[in-house]
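User: I've been going back and forth on whether these two constructs are worth ordering. Before I decide, could you fold them both?

Assistant: Sure. I'll take them in the order you sent them. The first construct and its C-alpha coordinates:
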Amino acid sequence: MSDGDGGSGAGRGPLAHRVPDLGALELLLAVARHGSLGRAARELGITQPAASSRIRAMERQLGVGLVDRSPRGSRLTDAGALVTDWARRVVEAAEAFDAGAQALRGRRDSRLRVAASMTIAEYLLPGWLIALRAQRPDTAVSLHAGNSAEVARRLLDGEAELGFVEGLAVPEGLDGVIVGHDRLLVVAAPGHAWARRRTPLTAAELAGAPLILRERGSGTRQVLDAALTDGGNGGLAEPLLELASTTAVKAAAVSGAGPAVLSELAVTEELAARRLVAVPVERVRLARALRAVWPRGRRPAGPARDLLSLTRRG
Protein backbone atom coordinates (compact mmCIF):
# COMPACT_ATOMS: atom_id res chain seq x y z
CA MET A 1 0.00 0.00 0.00
CA SER A 2 2.91 2.34 0.63
CA ASP A 3 4.55 4.43 -2.09
CA GLY A 4 7.68 2.43 -1.56
CA ASP A 5 6.09 -0.89 -2.56
CA GLY A 6 8.57 -2.28 -5.07
CA GLY A 7 5.87 -3.89 -7.27
CA SER A 8 3.50 -0.94 -7.49
CA GLY A 9 5.39 0.87 -10.27
CA ALA A 10 5.99 -2.10 -12.54
CA GLY A 11 5.19 -1.28 -16.12
CA ARG A 12 4.41 2.33 -15.26
CA GLY A 13 5.93 5.55 -16.52
CA PRO A 14 4.91 8.76 -18.22
CA LEU A 15 1.92 8.16 -20.50
CA ALA A 16 3.57 10.23 -23.21
CA HIS A 17 6.17 7.45 -23.58
CA ARG A 18 3.59 4.68 -23.91
CA VAL A 19 0.61 6.22 -25.71
CA PRO A 20 0.89 7.54 -29.30
CA ASP A 21 0.25 11.26 -29.76
CA LEU A 22 -3.07 12.53 -31.08
CA GLY A 23 -1.67 13.21 -34.55
CA ALA A 24 -0.63 9.57 -34.93
CA LEU A 25 -4.02 8.34 -33.68
CA GLU A 26 -5.84 10.64 -36.10
CA LEU A 27 -3.69 9.28 -38.93
CA LEU A 28 -4.61 5.70 -38.00
CA LEU A 29 -8.32 6.65 -38.01
CA ALA A 30 -7.89 8.23 -41.46
CA VAL A 31 -6.23 5.03 -42.78
CA ALA A 32 -9.20 3.05 -41.45
CA ARG A 33 -11.65 5.40 -43.21
CA HIS A 34 -9.92 5.47 -46.58
CA GLY A 35 -8.19 2.09 -46.80
CA SER A 36 -5.21 3.98 -48.20
CA LEU A 37 -2.19 5.50 -46.51
CA GLY A 38 -1.82 7.97 -49.39
CA ARG A 39 -5.38 9.27 -49.14
CA ALA A 40 -5.10 9.47 -45.36
CA ALA A 41 -1.91 11.52 -45.73
CA ARG A 42 -3.59 13.90 -48.18
CA GLU A 43 -6.54 14.42 -45.83
CA LEU A 44 -4.18 15.43 -43.03
CA GLY A 45 -1.97 17.58 -45.26
CA ILE A 46 1.23 15.53 -44.87
CA THR A 47 3.35 13.59 -47.33
CA GLN A 48 2.95 9.84 -47.75
CA PRO A 49 6.54 9.16 -46.58
CA ALA A 50 5.82 11.20 -43.41
CA ALA A 51 2.62 9.23 -42.86
CA SER A 52 4.43 5.90 -43.34
CA SER A 53 7.12 6.99 -40.90
CA ARG A 54 4.51 7.99 -38.31
CA ILE A 55 2.72 4.63 -38.62
CA ARG A 56 6.02 2.73 -38.28
CA ALA A 57 6.95 4.77 -35.20
CA MET A 58 3.56 3.99 -33.65
CA GLU A 59 4.02 0.28 -34.42
CA ARG A 60 7.44 0.33 -32.72
CA GLN A 61 6.03 2.20 -29.74
CA LEU A 62 3.16 -0.27 -29.27
CA GLY A 63 5.13 -3.37 -30.27
CA VAL A 64 2.47 -4.62 -32.73
CA GLY A 65 1.84 -4.31 -36.45
CA LEU A 66 -1.08 -1.99 -37.26
CA VAL A 67 -1.23 -1.70 -41.05
CA ASP A 68 -0.59 -4.17 -43.87
CA ARG A 69 0.61 -2.26 -46.95
CA SER A 70 0.21 -3.56 -50.51
CA PRO A 71 -0.06 -2.13 -54.05
CA ARG A 72 -3.86 -2.35 -53.66
CA GLY A 73 -3.95 -0.14 -50.56
CA SER A 74 -3.47 -0.28 -46.81
CA ARG A 75 -5.46 -2.64 -44.57
CA LEU A 76 -5.60 -2.67 -40.80
CA THR A 77 -4.30 -5.80 -39.10
CA ASP A 78 -6.49 -7.42 -36.46
CA ALA A 79 -4.43 -5.60 -33.82
CA GLY A 80 -4.72 -2.40 -35.86
CA ALA A 81 -8.53 -2.65 -35.94
CA LEU A 82 -8.60 -3.02 -32.16
CA VAL A 83 -6.18 -0.13 -31.62
CA THR A 84 -8.29 1.98 -33.99
CA ASP A 85 -11.35 1.49 -31.77
CA TRP A 86 -9.34 2.62 -28.77
CA ALA A 87 -7.87 5.52 -30.76
CA ARG A 88 -11.34 6.76 -31.67
CA ARG A 89 -12.26 7.00 -27.99
CA VAL A 90 -9.04 8.85 -27.18
CA VAL A 91 -9.57 11.39 -29.98
CA GLU A 92 -13.21 11.93 -28.99
CA ALA A 93 -12.14 12.43 -25.37
CA ALA A 94 -9.47 14.91 -26.46
CA GLU A 95 -12.07 16.88 -28.42
CA ALA A 96 -14.36 16.96 -25.37
CA PHE A 97 -11.43 18.10 -23.21
CA ASP A 98 -10.62 20.83 -25.72
CA ALA A 99 -14.24 22.03 -25.80
CA GLY A 100 -14.26 22.32 -22.00
CA ALA A 101 -10.95 24.15 -21.93
CA GLN A 102 -12.22 26.48 -24.65
CA ALA A 103 -15.18 27.44 -22.47
CA LEU A 104 -12.81 28.27 -19.60
CA ARG A 105 -10.68 30.54 -21.76
CA GLY A 106 -13.58 32.23 -23.55
CA ARG A 107 -12.40 35.74 -22.64
CA ARG A 108 -8.95 35.18 -24.10
CA ASP A 109 -10.38 33.64 -27.27
CA SER A 110 -12.48 36.72 -27.99
CA ARG A 111 -9.56 37.79 -30.21
CA LEU A 112 -8.22 35.67 -33.07
CA ARG A 113 -4.86 36.37 -34.68
CA VAL A 114 -4.55 35.07 -38.24
CA ALA A 115 -1.54 35.12 -40.59
CA ALA A 116 -2.08 34.37 -44.27
CA SER A 117 0.01 34.32 -47.42
CA MET A 118 -0.89 37.01 -49.92
CA THR A 119 -3.08 35.13 -52.42
CA ILE A 120 -5.22 33.54 -49.70
CA ALA A 121 -5.42 36.82 -47.76
CA GLU A 122 -6.55 38.75 -50.83
CA TYR A 123 -8.88 36.30 -52.55
CA LEU A 124 -10.20 33.67 -50.09
CA LEU A 125 -9.90 34.85 -46.50
CA PRO A 126 -12.39 37.76 -46.71
CA GLY A 127 -15.25 35.36 -47.45
CA TRP A 128 -14.22 33.04 -44.63
CA LEU A 129 -14.01 35.94 -42.17
CA ILE A 130 -17.47 37.19 -43.15
CA ALA A 131 -18.85 33.71 -42.42
CA LEU A 132 -16.96 33.62 -39.09
CA ARG A 133 -18.41 36.98 -38.11
CA ALA A 134 -21.93 35.67 -38.70
CA GLN A 135 -21.13 32.68 -36.47
CA ARG A 136 -19.12 34.56 -33.81
CA PRO A 137 -20.10 38.25 -33.93
CA ASP A 138 -18.18 39.08 -30.74
CA THR A 139 -14.83 37.78 -32.00
CA ALA A 140 -12.32 40.41 -33.09
CA VAL A 141 -9.94 39.16 -35.79
CA SER A 142 -6.52 40.63 -36.55
CA LEU A 143 -4.88 39.62 -39.84
CA HIS A 144 -1.28 39.79 -40.95
CA ALA A 145 -0.69 39.18 -44.65
CA GLY A 146 2.79 38.18 -45.78
CA ASN A 147 4.57 35.43 -47.65
CA SER A 148 4.44 31.80 -46.56
CA ALA A 149 7.78 31.99 -44.73
CA GLU A 150 6.55 34.98 -42.73
CA VAL A 151 3.32 33.16 -41.85
CA ALA A 152 5.32 30.21 -40.49
CA ARG A 153 7.56 32.52 -38.44
CA ARG A 154 4.58 34.28 -36.84
CA LEU A 155 2.97 30.99 -35.85
CA LEU A 156 6.18 29.61 -34.35
CA ASP A 157 6.78 32.88 -32.45
CA GLY A 158 3.29 32.79 -30.93
CA GLU A 159 2.11 35.85 -32.87
CA ALA A 160 -0.81 34.03 -34.54
CA GLU A 161 -3.08 31.11 -33.70
CA LEU A 162 -3.91 30.06 -37.26
CA GLY A 163 -2.15 30.54 -40.58
CA PHE A 164 -2.69 29.88 -44.28
CA VAL A 165 0.10 29.08 -46.75
CA GLU A 166 0.41 28.15 -50.42
CA GLY A 167 3.71 26.27 -50.65
CA LEU A 168 4.63 22.71 -51.50
CA ALA A 169 4.46 21.27 -47.98
CA VAL A 170 3.67 22.06 -44.35
CA PRO A 171 6.48 24.31 -43.03
CA GLU A 172 8.85 22.84 -40.43
CA GLY A 173 7.45 22.92 -36.90
CA LEU A 174 3.82 23.20 -37.99
CA ASP A 175 0.88 20.87 -38.51
CA GLY A 176 -1.69 21.52 -41.18
CA VAL A 177 -4.49 20.38 -43.40
CA ILE A 178 -5.31 21.04 -47.05
CA VAL A 179 -8.26 23.42 -47.44
CA GLY A 180 -8.18 23.88 -51.22
CA HIS A 181 -6.19 23.69 -54.42
CA ASP A 182 -4.90 26.30 -56.82
CA ARG A 183 -2.80 26.50 -59.96
CA LEU A 184 -0.36 29.07 -61.21
CA LEU A 185 -0.71 30.61 -64.65
CA VAL A 186 1.85 32.30 -66.85
CA VAL A 187 0.18 35.54 -68.00
CA ALA A 188 1.12 38.45 -70.23
CA ALA A 189 -0.50 41.62 -71.54
CA PRO A 190 -2.21 41.20 -74.97
CA GLY A 191 0.57 43.16 -76.67
CA HIS A 192 3.35 40.86 -75.46
CA ALA A 193 4.82 38.36 -77.94
CA TRP A 194 3.92 35.42 -75.69
CA ALA A 195 0.22 36.37 -75.86
CA ARG A 196 0.30 35.81 -79.65
CA ARG A 197 2.12 32.45 -79.61
CA ARG A 198 0.50 29.52 -81.35
CA THR A 199 2.54 26.89 -79.51
CA PRO A 200 3.00 26.41 -75.76
CA LEU A 201 6.11 27.67 -74.04
CA THR A 202 8.69 25.06 -73.23
CA ALA A 203 9.96 24.72 -69.68
CA ALA A 204 13.37 25.94 -70.83
CA GLU A 205 11.85 29.07 -72.37
CA LEU A 206 9.97 29.84 -69.17
CA ALA A 207 13.03 29.21 -67.01
CA GLY A 208 15.26 31.38 -69.17
CA ALA A 209 12.95 34.39 -69.46
CA PRO A 210 13.05 37.42 -67.15
CA LEU A 211 9.68 37.39 -65.35
CA ILE A 212 7.77 39.61 -62.94
CA LEU A 213 7.73 37.50 -59.78
CA ARG A 214 6.86 37.44 -56.12
CA GLU A 215 9.77 37.56 -53.68
CA ARG A 216 11.65 34.52 -52.39
CA GLY A 217 9.79 32.96 -49.46
CA SER A 218 6.41 33.29 -51.16
CA GLY A 219 4.42 30.15 -51.95
CA THR A 220 4.12 31.20 -55.60
CA ARG A 221 7.88 31.53 -56.00
CA GLN A 222 8.51 28.27 -54.16
CA VAL A 223 6.20 26.27 -56.44
CA LEU A 224 7.60 27.82 -59.62
CA ASP A 225 11.22 27.32 -58.53
CA ALA A 226 10.56 23.67 -57.68
CA ALA A 227 8.65 22.95 -60.91
CA LEU A 228 11.46 24.27 -63.10
CA THR A 229 14.32 22.85 -61.04
CA ASP A 230 12.73 19.37 -60.95
CA GLY A 231 12.47 19.47 -64.73
CA GLY A 232 16.23 19.83 -65.03
CA ASN A 233 16.07 23.42 -66.25
CA GLY A 234 18.35 24.83 -63.58
CA GLY A 235 15.75 27.05 -61.97
CA LEU A 236 14.63 30.57 -62.81
CA ALA A 237 16.52 33.32 -64.56
CA GLU A 238 17.05 36.61 -62.73
CA PRO A 239 13.61 38.26 -62.35
CA LEU A 240 12.68 41.27 -64.41
CA LEU A 241 10.92 42.65 -61.30
CA GLU A 242 10.57 41.15 -57.84
CA LEU A 243 7.51 42.46 -55.96
CA ALA A 244 6.07 41.77 -52.51
CA SER A 245 2.36 41.42 -53.31
CA THR A 246 0.13 39.64 -55.79
CA THR A 247 -1.61 42.92 -56.64
CA ALA A 248 1.69 44.60 -57.51
CA VAL A 249 2.79 41.73 -59.76
CA LYS A 250 -0.57 41.74 -61.54
CA ALA A 251 -0.52 45.52 -62.07
CA ALA A 252 2.96 45.35 -63.58
CA ALA A 253 1.91 42.57 -65.96
CA VAL A 254 -1.24 44.42 -67.04
CA SER A 255 0.88 47.52 -67.75
CA GLY A 256 2.90 45.51 -70.26
CA ALA A 257 6.12 45.48 -68.23
CA GLY A 258 6.57 41.76 -68.87
CA PRO A 259 5.09 38.29 -68.30
CA ALA A 260 4.28 37.12 -64.79
CA VAL A 261 3.33 33.97 -62.89
CA LEU A 262 0.24 34.36 -60.72
CA SER A 263 -2.47 32.35 -59.01
CA GLU A 264 -5.49 31.59 -61.16
CA LEU A 265 -7.55 33.04 -58.30
CA ALA A 266 -5.86 36.42 -58.78
CA VAL A 267 -6.35 36.88 -62.52
CA THR A 268 -9.90 35.67 -63.21
CA GLU A 269 -11.26 39.15 -63.96
CA GLU A 270 -8.22 40.24 -65.97
CA LEU A 271 -8.41 37.13 -68.16
CA ALA A 272 -12.16 37.59 -68.75
CA ALA A 273 -11.62 41.23 -69.72
CA ARG A 274 -8.59 40.37 -71.90
CA ARG A 275 -6.34 42.68 -69.88
CA LEU A 276 -4.14 39.60 -69.49
CA VAL A 277 -3.75 36.46 -71.59
CA ALA A 278 -2.92 33.01 -70.19
CA VAL A 279 0.17 31.52 -71.88
CA PRO A 280 0.22 27.69 -72.07
CA VAL A 281 3.36 25.91 -70.88
CA GLU A 282 4.12 22.30 -71.74
CA ARG A 283 5.09 19.70 -69.13
CA VAL A 284 5.45 22.07 -66.17
CA ARG A 285 3.31 21.23 -63.14
CA LEU A 286 2.15 24.46 -61.51
CA ALA A 287 -0.58 23.09 -59.23
CA ARG A 288 -0.37 23.64 -55.50
CA ALA A 289 -2.27 22.91 -52.30
CA LEU A 290 -3.64 25.65 -50.06
CA ARG A 291 -3.16 24.76 -46.39
CA ALA A 292 -4.31 25.91 -42.99
CA VAL A 293 -1.39 25.55 -40.54
CA TRP A 294 -0.80 25.87 -36.81
CA PRO A 295 2.03 25.16 -34.34
CA ARG A 296 2.73 21.44 -34.03
CA GLY A 297 0.98 19.88 -31.06
CA ARG A 298 -1.42 22.82 -30.54
CA ARG A 299 -4.71 22.01 -32.21
CA PRO A 300 -6.82 25.02 -33.24
CA ALA A 301 -9.41 25.87 -30.59
CA GLY A 302 -12.19 28.39 -30.14
CA PRO A 303 -12.54 30.87 -33.03
CA ALA A 304 -9.47 29.36 -34.77
CA ARG A 305 -11.17 25.97 -34.90
CA ASP A 306 -14.40 27.58 -36.14
CA LEU A 307 -12.54 29.43 -38.90
CA LEU A 308 -10.75 26.23 -39.91
CA SER A 309 -14.10 24.45 -40.12
CA LEU A 310 -15.49 27.19 -42.36
CA THR A 311 -12.59 26.87 -44.81
CA ARG A 312 -13.31 23.18 -45.32
CA ARG A 313 -17.01 23.48 -46.15
CA GLY A 314 -18.24 23.03 -49.69
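The second construct, handled the same way:
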Amino acid sequence: MARHTHSPVALQLAMGSLVVGVVVLGLKGFAAWATGSIALFSDALESVVNVVTAVVTLIAVRLAARPANDTLPYGYHKAEYFSAVIVGVFIVVAALLIFREAYYGFMSPRAFVADPLGLAVSVIASVLNMAWAYLLISRGRRERSPALQADGKHLLTDVISTFGVLVGVGLVIVTGWQRLDAILAALVGLSILWSGWQLLRDSVIGLMDVAVDARQLMRIKEIISANAEGAIEAHDIRTRQAGSATFIEFHLVVPGSMTVEAAHVICDRIEAKLREAESDATVTIHVEPEDKAKHSGIVVI
Protein backbone atom coordinates (compact mmCIF):
# COMPACT_ATOMS: atom_id res chain seq x y z
CA MET A 1 0.00 0.00 0.00
CA ALA A 2 1.38 3.42 -0.93
CA ARG A 3 2.38 5.79 1.84
CA HIS A 4 1.96 9.50 1.17
CA THR A 5 3.01 12.22 3.56
CA HIS A 6 3.58 15.93 3.33
CA SER A 7 7.05 17.18 4.08
CA PRO A 8 7.65 18.95 7.42
CA VAL A 9 7.89 22.19 5.41
CA ALA A 10 4.16 22.11 4.62
CA LEU A 11 3.26 21.72 8.30
CA GLN A 12 5.66 24.50 9.30
CA LEU A 13 4.14 26.84 6.71
CA ALA A 14 0.62 26.02 7.91
CA MET A 15 1.61 26.84 11.51
CA GLY A 16 3.38 29.98 10.32
CA SER A 17 0.17 31.10 8.58
CA LEU A 18 -1.69 30.90 11.86
CA VAL A 19 0.91 33.04 13.64
CA VAL A 20 1.01 35.61 10.82
CA GLY A 21 -2.79 35.67 10.67
CA VAL A 22 -3.12 36.46 14.37
CA VAL A 23 -0.45 39.20 14.18
CA VAL A 24 -2.05 40.83 11.12
CA LEU A 25 -5.50 40.64 12.71
CA GLY A 26 -4.16 42.47 15.76
CA LEU A 27 -2.54 45.16 13.59
CA LYS A 28 -5.63 45.71 11.43
CA GLY A 29 -7.91 45.63 14.44
CA PHE A 30 -5.86 48.43 15.99
CA ALA A 31 -6.00 50.44 12.74
CA ALA A 32 -9.80 50.09 12.60
CA TRP A 33 -10.16 51.07 16.26
CA ALA A 34 -7.81 54.05 15.96
CA THR A 35 -9.54 55.51 12.88
CA GLY A 36 -13.15 54.36 13.28
CA SER A 37 -13.22 53.65 9.53
CA ILE A 38 -15.83 51.17 8.30
CA ALA A 39 -13.57 50.22 5.40
CA LEU A 40 -10.66 49.44 7.72
CA PHE A 41 -13.05 47.57 10.02
CA SER A 42 -14.12 45.47 7.03
CA ASP A 43 -10.47 44.86 6.21
CA ALA A 44 -9.92 43.68 9.79
CA LEU A 45 -12.98 41.44 9.53
CA GLU A 46 -11.41 39.79 6.50
CA SER A 47 -8.36 39.08 8.66
CA VAL A 48 -10.62 37.14 11.02
CA VAL A 49 -11.36 34.91 8.02
CA ASN A 50 -7.60 34.64 7.44
CA VAL A 51 -7.12 33.28 10.95
CA VAL A 52 -9.94 30.78 10.45
CA THR A 53 -8.37 29.87 7.10
CA ALA A 54 -5.01 29.27 8.78
CA VAL A 55 -6.58 27.00 11.42
CA VAL A 56 -8.47 24.98 8.80
CA THR A 57 -5.37 24.77 6.60
CA LEU A 58 -3.24 23.50 9.49
CA ILE A 59 -5.80 20.81 10.31
CA ALA A 60 -6.10 19.82 6.64
CA VAL A 61 -2.35 19.61 6.04
CA ARG A 62 -1.87 17.50 9.18
CA LEU A 63 -4.74 15.24 8.15
CA ALA A 64 -3.49 14.92 4.56
CA ALA A 65 -0.09 13.85 5.92
CA ARG A 66 -1.58 10.66 7.38
CA PRO A 67 -0.58 7.49 5.55
CA ALA A 68 -3.13 5.40 3.69
CA ASN A 69 -4.84 2.65 5.68
CA ASP A 70 -7.42 -0.10 5.23
CA THR A 71 -10.31 2.35 5.61
CA LEU A 72 -8.87 4.95 3.23
CA PRO A 73 -6.53 2.97 0.96
CA TYR A 74 -5.94 5.97 -1.32
CA GLY A 75 -4.94 8.25 1.55
CA TYR A 76 -6.25 11.48 3.09
CA HIS A 77 -5.11 13.86 0.36
CA LYS A 78 -8.56 15.20 -0.49
CA ALA A 79 -8.85 16.63 3.02
CA GLU A 80 -7.08 19.68 1.60
CA TYR A 81 -9.82 20.21 -0.98
CA PHE A 82 -12.48 19.99 1.72
CA SER A 83 -10.55 22.57 3.74
CA ALA A 84 -10.59 24.95 0.78
CA VAL A 85 -14.38 24.51 0.55
CA ILE A 86 -14.72 25.39 4.25
CA VAL A 87 -12.52 28.46 3.75
CA GLY A 88 -14.66 29.52 0.80
CA VAL A 89 -17.80 29.30 2.94
CA PHE A 90 -16.23 31.43 5.68
CA ILE A 91 -15.24 34.00 3.07
CA VAL A 92 -18.84 34.24 1.88
CA VAL A 93 -20.05 34.73 5.48
CA ALA A 94 -17.46 37.47 6.05
CA ALA A 95 -18.54 39.20 2.84
CA LEU A 96 -22.18 39.24 4.00
CA LEU A 97 -21.16 40.78 7.34
CA ILE A 98 -19.14 43.42 5.52
CA PHE A 99 -22.10 44.25 3.26
CA ARG A 100 -24.21 44.72 6.38
CA GLU A 101 -21.72 47.18 7.90
CA ALA A 102 -21.35 48.99 4.56
CA TYR A 103 -25.13 49.39 4.25
CA TYR A 104 -25.56 50.94 7.70
CA GLY A 105 -22.47 53.09 7.16
CA PHE A 106 -23.85 54.39 3.88
CA MET A 107 -27.29 55.12 5.33
CA SER A 108 -25.85 56.80 8.44
CA PRO A 109 -22.39 58.17 7.57
CA ARG A 110 -20.04 58.77 10.45
CA ALA A 111 -16.76 60.60 10.55
CA PHE A 112 -13.54 58.77 11.29
CA VAL A 113 -10.20 59.92 12.61
CA ALA A 114 -7.32 60.17 10.13
CA ASP A 115 -4.97 58.68 12.68
CA PRO A 116 -1.43 58.47 11.15
CA LEU A 117 -0.38 55.63 13.45
CA GLY A 118 -3.49 53.59 12.61
CA LEU A 119 -2.94 54.03 8.87
CA ALA A 120 0.76 53.20 9.18
CA VAL A 121 -0.04 50.03 11.12
CA SER A 122 -2.46 48.98 8.37
CA VAL A 123 0.30 49.44 5.77
CA ILE A 124 2.71 47.32 7.85
CA ALA A 125 0.08 44.58 8.14
CA SER A 126 -0.37 44.57 4.36
CA VAL A 127 3.36 44.31 3.69
CA LEU A 128 3.58 41.36 6.09
CA ASN A 129 0.59 39.72 4.39
CA MET A 130 2.08 40.22 0.92
CA ALA A 131 5.41 38.65 1.85
CA TRP A 132 3.73 35.67 3.47
CA ALA A 133 1.27 35.23 0.56
CA TYR A 134 4.08 34.91 -1.98
CA LEU A 135 5.91 32.46 0.28
CA LEU A 136 2.79 30.30 0.67
CA ILE A 137 2.00 30.25 -3.05
CA SER A 138 5.55 29.41 -4.14
CA ARG A 139 6.15 26.78 -1.45
CA GLY A 140 2.60 25.44 -1.82
CA ARG A 141 3.26 24.73 -5.51
CA ARG A 142 6.54 23.05 -4.63
CA GLU A 143 4.85 20.89 -1.99
CA ARG A 144 1.79 20.41 -4.26
CA SER A 145 -0.50 21.47 -1.44
CA PRO A 146 -3.88 22.91 -2.54
CA ALA A 147 -4.58 24.14 1.00
CA LEU A 148 -1.36 26.19 1.21
CA GLN A 149 -1.85 27.62 -2.27
CA ALA A 150 -5.48 28.53 -1.49
CA ASP A 151 -4.38 30.25 1.72
CA GLY A 152 -1.69 32.20 -0.15
CA LYS A 153 -4.05 33.29 -2.93
CA HIS A 154 -6.60 34.48 -0.40
CA LEU A 155 -3.94 36.50 1.44
CA LEU A 156 -2.86 38.06 -1.86
CA THR A 157 -6.46 39.13 -2.50
CA ASP A 158 -6.49 40.59 1.00
CA VAL A 159 -3.37 42.64 0.20
CA ILE A 160 -4.95 44.04 -2.96
CA SER A 161 -8.18 44.97 -1.19
CA THR A 162 -6.27 46.58 1.69
CA PHE A 163 -4.28 48.69 -0.76
CA GLY A 164 -7.53 49.82 -2.36
CA VAL A 165 -8.99 50.64 1.06
CA LEU A 166 -5.98 52.74 2.03
CA VAL A 167 -6.15 54.70 -1.23
CA GLY A 168 -9.87 55.22 -0.69
CA VAL A 169 -9.42 56.31 2.91
CA GLY A 170 -6.94 58.88 1.67
CA LEU A 171 -9.59 60.16 -0.75
CA VAL A 172 -12.13 60.38 2.08
CA ILE A 173 -9.66 62.48 4.08
CA VAL A 174 -9.04 64.78 1.11
CA THR A 175 -12.65 65.13 -0.10
CA GLY A 176 -14.50 64.78 3.21
CA TRP A 177 -17.09 62.53 1.52
CA GLN A 178 -17.89 60.10 4.37
CA ARG A 179 -20.10 57.76 2.33
CA LEU A 180 -17.05 56.78 0.31
CA ASP A 181 -15.84 54.92 3.40
CA ALA A 182 -18.93 52.68 3.29
CA ILE A 183 -18.62 52.22 -0.48
CA LEU A 184 -15.04 51.04 0.00
CA ALA A 185 -16.21 48.55 2.61
CA ALA A 186 -18.72 47.15 0.10
CA LEU A 187 -15.96 46.84 -2.50
CA VAL A 188 -13.88 44.87 0.01
CA GLY A 189 -16.86 42.57 0.44
CA LEU A 190 -17.14 42.05 -3.32
CA SER A 191 -13.42 41.37 -3.56
CA ILE A 192 -13.38 38.61 -0.96
CA LEU A 193 -16.66 37.22 -2.33
CA TRP A 194 -14.91 36.74 -5.68
CA SER A 195 -11.97 35.14 -3.87
CA GLY A 196 -14.35 32.75 -2.11
CA TRP A 197 -15.98 31.76 -5.40
CA GLN A 198 -12.61 30.96 -6.96
CA LEU A 199 -11.64 28.79 -3.98
CA LEU A 200 -14.91 26.87 -4.13
CA ARG A 201 -14.57 26.36 -7.89
CA ASP A 202 -11.00 25.07 -7.67
CA SER A 203 -11.86 22.78 -4.74
CA VAL A 204 -14.81 21.22 -6.54
CA ILE A 205 -12.59 20.55 -9.56
CA GLY A 206 -10.07 18.84 -7.27
CA LEU A 207 -12.75 16.71 -5.66
CA MET A 208 -13.83 15.58 -9.15
CA ASP A 209 -10.46 13.81 -9.68
CA VAL A 210 -8.96 16.24 -12.16
CA ALA A 211 -6.19 14.90 -14.41
CA VAL A 212 -2.62 16.24 -14.27
CA ASP A 213 -1.83 19.16 -16.57
CA ALA A 214 -0.65 18.66 -20.15
CA ARG A 215 3.04 19.28 -19.37
CA GLN A 216 3.06 16.79 -16.50
CA LEU A 217 1.23 14.19 -18.62
CA MET A 218 3.80 14.59 -21.39
CA ARG A 219 6.61 14.01 -18.88
CA ILE A 220 4.87 10.86 -17.61
CA LYS A 221 4.52 9.52 -21.16
CA GLU A 222 8.18 10.23 -21.90
CA ILE A 223 9.24 8.31 -18.78
CA ILE A 224 7.08 5.32 -19.71
CA SER A 225 8.44 5.33 -23.26
CA ALA A 226 12.07 5.58 -22.14
CA ASN A 227 11.79 2.72 -19.62
CA ALA A 228 9.45 0.22 -21.31
CA GLU A 229 12.12 -1.63 -23.30
CA GLY A 230 10.94 -5.16 -23.98
CA ALA A 231 7.26 -4.20 -24.07
CA ILE A 232 5.23 -3.45 -27.20
CA GLU A 233 3.09 -0.48 -26.22
CA ALA A 234 1.40 1.38 -23.37
CA HIS A 235 -2.14 2.62 -23.84
CA ASP A 236 -5.20 3.93 -21.97
CA ILE A 237 -3.04 6.15 -19.75
CA ARG A 238 -5.14 7.83 -17.06
CA THR A 239 -4.07 10.18 -14.30
CA ARG A 240 -5.70 11.99 -11.42
CA GLN A 241 -4.51 14.48 -8.88
CA ALA A 242 -5.47 14.37 -5.20
CA GLY A 243 -3.66 17.07 -3.25
CA SER A 244 0.04 16.23 -3.27
CA ALA A 245 -0.58 12.70 -4.61
CA THR A 246 -0.59 11.68 -8.27
CA PHE A 247 -2.29 8.48 -9.42
CA ILE A 248 -1.14 6.96 -12.72
CA GLU A 249 -2.79 4.01 -14.45
CA PHE A 250 -2.13 2.41 -17.85
CA HIS A 251 -2.11 -0.86 -19.78
CA LEU A 252 1.26 -2.32 -20.80
CA VAL A 253 1.26 -4.71 -23.76
CA VAL A 254 4.07 -7.31 -23.79
CA PRO A 255 4.91 -10.22 -26.15
CA GLY A 256 2.71 -13.25 -25.50
CA SER A 257 5.78 -15.45 -24.98
CA MET A 258 7.18 -13.19 -22.23
CA THR A 259 7.24 -14.68 -18.74
CA VAL A 260 5.41 -13.06 -15.84
CA GLU A 261 8.75 -12.43 -14.15
CA ALA A 262 10.16 -10.60 -17.19
CA ALA A 263 7.01 -8.45 -17.47
CA HIS A 264 7.25 -7.70 -13.77
CA VAL A 265 10.82 -6.44 -14.19
CA ILE A 266 9.66 -3.97 -16.86
CA CYS A 267 6.81 -2.77 -14.63
CA ASP A 268 9.16 -2.29 -11.68
CA ARG A 269 11.55 -0.29 -13.84
CA ILE A 270 8.79 2.02 -15.10
CA GLU A 271 7.29 2.47 -11.62
CA ALA A 272 10.66 3.34 -10.10
CA LYS A 273 11.33 6.04 -12.72
CA LEU A 274 7.83 7.48 -12.40
CA ARG A 275 8.21 7.73 -8.63
CA GLU A 276 11.55 9.47 -9.07
CA ALA A 277 9.82 12.13 -11.16
CA GLU A 278 6.56 12.18 -9.18
CA SER A 279 7.66 11.73 -5.58
CA ASP A 280 4.14 11.11 -4.28
CA ALA A 281 2.88 8.85 -7.08
CA THR A 282 0.84 5.65 -7.01
CA VAL A 283 1.32 3.63 -10.20
CA THR A 284 -1.02 0.86 -11.39
CA ILE A 285 -0.02 -1.15 -14.48
CA HIS A 286 -2.26 -3.71 -16.16
CA VAL A 287 -0.15 -6.16 -18.22
CA GLU A 288 -1.71 -7.53 -21.43
CA PRO A 289 -0.56 -9.96 -24.17
CA GLU A 290 0.26 -8.64 -27.63
CA ASP A 291 -3.12 -9.55 -29.14
CA LYS A 292 -4.60 -6.78 -26.97
CA ALA A 293 -2.41 -4.14 -28.62
CA LYS A 294 -4.30 -1.10 -29.87
CA HIS A 295 -1.33 0.35 -31.78
CA SER A 296 -2.00 3.69 -30.14
CA GLY A 297 -0.81 5.55 -27.10
CA ILE A 298 2.91 4.90 -26.55
CA VAL A 299 4.34 2.46 -29.08
CA VAL A 300 7.59 0.99 -27.72
CA ILE A 301 8.67 -1.21 -30.62
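Notes on the second construct follow. The two ends are 32 Å apart (CA to CA). The chain is about 65% helix and 10% strand.
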